[in-house]
Specification:
Elements: H1 3-13, H2 17-24, E1 36-37, E2 55-65, E3 71-78, E4 84-88, H3 94-97
Parallel strand pairs: 1-4
Antiparallel strand pairs: 2-3, 3-4
Bound molecules: zinc ion.
Zinc ion binds near residues 45, 46, 79 and 83.
Length: about 100
């Protein structure tokens, strides 16, 4: 599966067109600069999961192909509480990654 297909499926998860357009934009949105690395795959401030995020942006320019052929990239989320955070897609919990299959 190509990354573009994954992004397409990700965009379909969100009803809002604004969120989908943000995810496709090759230029990082301004809020991405303030994002902090979340060690858990949820908002480090209020612990909300990604389905309540206001915006999502995927860093396609920093795609990493691992030795086991797994593609790794940064997923940026702007939480509804205002906190911006990012995590590796590979850190996504199994329940979330089932949405991509
Ligand atoms: Zn939050």
């Amino acid at each position: 599966m190509t990354l573009n297909v994954i992004i397409l499926r990700h965009a379909k998860m969100k009803i809002s067109g604004i969120v989908a357009m943000d995810a496709f934009n090759p230029t990082p949105p301004a809020w991405v600069k303030k994002a902090t690395h979340a060690l858990q795959f949820c908002c480090p401030s209020c612990l909300a999961r990604t389905d309540s995020a206001q915006s999502v942006w995927l860093n396609r320019s920093a795609l990493v192909i691992r030795e086991d052929n797994l593609r790794k990239w940064q997923e940026f989320y702007q939480c509804s509480c205002g906190k911006a955070w990012w995590a590796w897609n590979t850190d996504r919990p199994p329940l979330d990654s089932s949405l991509f299959n």
